[in-house]
Specification:
mainly beta, two-stranded antiparallel ribbon, Nucleoside Triphosphate Pyrophosphohydrolase
C-alpha cells in the first residue's frame, strides 16, 4: 500500500489584537470560481521546499503585511484532494504577537477589522467554518469533499 502522496503545503495566519483581526483583500488566482476574484481572508501563502512550516508563516506574513509575527500557534488545518490527486493542505495559525508598520503588498490590501464584522465582509469561501477553528477552537480540521461538490466537513 502506497503511503505517500503529492502535497501542496500552504499556511494562513489570524493576526489579532484583542477582537480586531488583520485581514487581506486577496486577489485569488485559479480558485474554484471562474477567472480571478477577490476575497477577504487572513494573510498567508506557500511553504517553500524544505522550509520549516512555522518559518513559512512568519515569512509569508512579513511579505504580505510588513509585520513580523512571533509565536504563531498552529490551531488546525484546511485540506482537500485536488482533481489531479494532489492533496492541498493549509496550516492554520494564529498569533497576537507582532511588530512593524502595516503595509499592503501586491498580494492584496491589508487592514484591521473587528472579528464580529468579518462575516459581513465579502470573505473567501468557507471563512465562516474556518473561524470555528481559528476563533472558537471547536474543530481541528476543515476537509473539503471534492466528490460532493466541495462539501465542507468540520472534524
Amino acid at each position: 500500500m502506497e503511503r505517500s502522496e503529492d502535497v501542496i503545503l500552504t499556511n494562513m495566519c489570524m493576526v489579532y489584537d484583542g477582537r480586531k483581526v488583520l485581514v487581506q483583500e486577496k486577489i485569488l488566482k485559479g480558485d474554484m470560481e471562474e477567472g480571478h476574484s477577490r476575497g477577504i481572508t487572513f494573510p498567508g501563502g506557500h511553504v517553500e521546499r524544505h522550509e520549516p512550516i512555522v518559518d513559512s508563516v512568519i515569512r509569508e506574513i512579513y511579505e504580505e503585511t510588513n509585520l513580523t509575527i512571533e509565536n504563531p500557534r498552529l490551531c488546525g488545518v484546511k485540506d482537500w484532494v485536488e482533481e489531479d490527486g494532489r492533496r492541498y493542505v493549509v496550516f492554520l495559525f494564529k498569533t497576537d504577537r507582532f511588530s512593524g508598520e502595516l503595509k499592503s503588498s501586491d498580494e492584496g490590501k491589508v487592514f484591521w477589522t473587528e472579528l464580529e464584522d468579518l462575516p459581513n465582509l465579502p470573505v473567501i469561501w468557507h471563512m465562516d467554518r474556518m473561524l470555528r477553528i481559528f476563533d472558537k477552537e471547536e474543530f481541528a480540521e476543515l476537509f473539503l469533499e471534492v466528490e460532493h461538490d466541495w462539501r465542507p466537513v468540520l472534524k
